């Protein structure tokens, strides 16, 4: 019996896609930089079916590529072009298994979109705080596999910190049942950590139990203009001192970013023109008017800002957030860019930006750097969208640009990937820059669990 026949028997013939037209959506990454050709795309509906597909993989030597919403930017869920790999797309596994209001947890299958999990929590008056631009299409399994970060890491942590339990299928077909919603569990190895942030190379996540929080009643949002990243870091510390963990989000935005938004999204209005801006938000369970008044009093009379705007309504809050959310779309409309997802300690951000900017300018005079991101947790989206006149040779310069940016990030005790993952795009860079002992440990675990190398081959390692 052929591999395809056995796979069809497991998931049902209607849920095994083999025609090119049907598989096309699963074979290219979101940025369309990586293109593959699978043996087929399987759409399992249960953990048992996933386990059976993994066992089939082991029996036949068929590589497996787990895929969630396919919103990643590094090719981590794209098959290669060999036509041998079976893509395991989990969108049919989209049940909210339980919401435990008293324990403040939700248990969701891997194919649930992030928005569906957020809605399930909200339906019980609770908050699942992970927030991403792709939340309507990205899936929980992919969020865990990439250890997604997003806008609220400053207060709530990234996906690793939001995950209490996991269900996953190992490369030998065994299922790990570890969905307990426990905040304290000191009974040996924490199995879920093997799967969070490791991009499916150790197995396939099928469900997770996630932390929930009280739903904020009030949000106060402000955009302030500043003259330097050093001023942004000082502002972050002042806000923390005054408002503590009510500071939920703190985003750094360069003037170049807002110029692109103004040019390519003309319906968006810029409130002022500054070299740098910070968009930040407070949230708590109190009254909206009280929180607004506290922030207004803090802002009033301060001379550290070039300018400042405090949202006075939900509409104005959405308008301020749209300035941040449209940056990536404005970049896309403007043309290609070499994207980076680096992180350095918050204290090192001004020095990193100065040093890396000078090195890039020396190598590529007149280059255009588009910087924005989550300064509150040290994660910057550091993109280069122009290296030479006409921008015609941008990707010819990618190797040199990456070498400068990654070398500089690691010189400041940083990393080349804060929240987007490694995938295919950064795999060789990780091998070059990452701690050798840590790389050796990952390879040892990979060999022990997946000696044939069938789980998401060509990714991360």
Tell me what you see in this structure.
Residues 34-215 form the FAD-binding PCMH-type domain. GO terms for molecular function: catalytic activity; FAD binding. The protein is of the alpha+beta class and 461 residues long. Among the domains are: 96-214, Uridine Diphospho-n-acetylenolpyruvylglucosamine Reductase, domain 3; 218-329, Alpha-Beta Plaits (2-Layer Sandwich); 335-420, Alpha-Beta Plaits, CATH 3.30.70. It has helices spanning 3-11, 20-23, 47-60, 114-122, 140-146, 153-156, 159-162, 229-243, 255-264, 288-299, 314-325, 327-334, 349-363, 398-411, 427-433, 436-449; strands at 16-17, 40-42, 64-67, 86-89, 96-100, 105-109, 126-127, 163-169, 175-178, 204-211, 213-214, 218-226, 247-254, 276-284, 307-310, 341-343, 368-374, 379-386. The strands form four sheets. It has a seven-stranded antiparallel beta sheet, with helices on both faces. Strands 5-6-10-8-9 form a five-stranded antiparallel beta sheet. The two termini are 33 Å apart. The model has no long low-confidence stretch (mean pLDDT 95).
CATH class type of the domain at 96-214: Alpha Beta
* Strand arrangement across the biggest beta sheet: 15-12-14-13-17-18-16
The CATH level-2 architecture of the domain at 96-214 is identified as 2-Layer Sandwich
Low-confidence stretches: none
Instruction: Report the strand count.
Output: 18
């Amino acid at each position: 019996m052929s591999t395809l026949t056995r796979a069809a028997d497991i998931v049902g013939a209607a849920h095994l896609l083999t025609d090119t037209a049907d598989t096309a959506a699963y074979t290219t990454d979101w940025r369309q930089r990586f293109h593959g050709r699978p043996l087929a795309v399987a759409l399992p509906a249960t953990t048992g079916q996933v386990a059976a597909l993994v066992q089939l993989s082991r029996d036949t030597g068929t590589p497996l590529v787990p895929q969630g919403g396919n919103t990643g930017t590094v090719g981590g869920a794209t098959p290669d072009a060999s036509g041998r790999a079976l893509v395991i797309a989990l969108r049919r596994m989209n049940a909210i298994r339980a919401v435990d209001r008293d324990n403040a947890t939700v248990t969701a299958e891997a194919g649930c979109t992030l928005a569906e999990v957020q809605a399930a929590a909200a339906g019980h008056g609770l908050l699942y705080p992970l927030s991403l631009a792709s939340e309507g299409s990205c899936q929980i399994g992919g969020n865990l596999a990439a250890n997604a970060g997003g806008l609220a890491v400053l207060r709530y942590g990234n996906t690793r910190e939001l995950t209490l339990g996991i269900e996953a299928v190992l490369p030998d077909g065994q299922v790990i049942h570890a969905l307990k919603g426990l905040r304290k569990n000191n009974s040996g190895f924490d199995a879920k950590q093997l799967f969070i942030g490791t991009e499916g190379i150790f197995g396939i996540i099928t469900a997770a139990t996630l932390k929930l929080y009280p739903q904020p009643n009030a949000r106060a949002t402000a955009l302030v203009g500043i003259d330097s990243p050093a001023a942004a870091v000082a502002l972050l510390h002042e806000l923390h001192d005054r408002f503590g963990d009510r500071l939920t989000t703190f985003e750094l935005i360069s003037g170049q970013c807002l110029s692109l938004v103004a040019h390519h999204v003309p319906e968006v209005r810029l409130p002022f023109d500054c070299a740098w801006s910070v968009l930040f938000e407070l949230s708590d369970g109190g009254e909206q008017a009280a929180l607004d008044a506290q922030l207004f009093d803090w802002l009033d009379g301060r001379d550290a800002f070039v300018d400042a705007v405090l949202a006075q309504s939900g509409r104005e809050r959405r308008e301020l957030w749209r300035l941040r959310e449209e940056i990536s779309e404005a970049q896309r409309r403007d043309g290609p860019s070499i994207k980076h997802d680096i992180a350095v300690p918050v204290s090192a951000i001004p020095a990193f930006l100065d040093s890396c900017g000078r090195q890039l300018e020396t190598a590529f005079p007149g280059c255009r750097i588009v910087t924005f991101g989550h300064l509150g947790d040290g994660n910057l989206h550091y993109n280069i969208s122009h290296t030479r006149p006409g921008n015609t040779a941008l990707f010819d310069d990618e190797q040199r640009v990456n070498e400068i940016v990654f070398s500089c990030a690691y010189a400041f005790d940083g990393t080349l990937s804060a929240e987007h993952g490694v995938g295919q795009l950064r795999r060789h860079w990780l091998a070059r820059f990452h701690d050798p002992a840590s790389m050796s440990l990952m390879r040892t675990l990979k060999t022990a669990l997946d000696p044939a190398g069938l789980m998401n081959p060509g990714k991360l390692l």
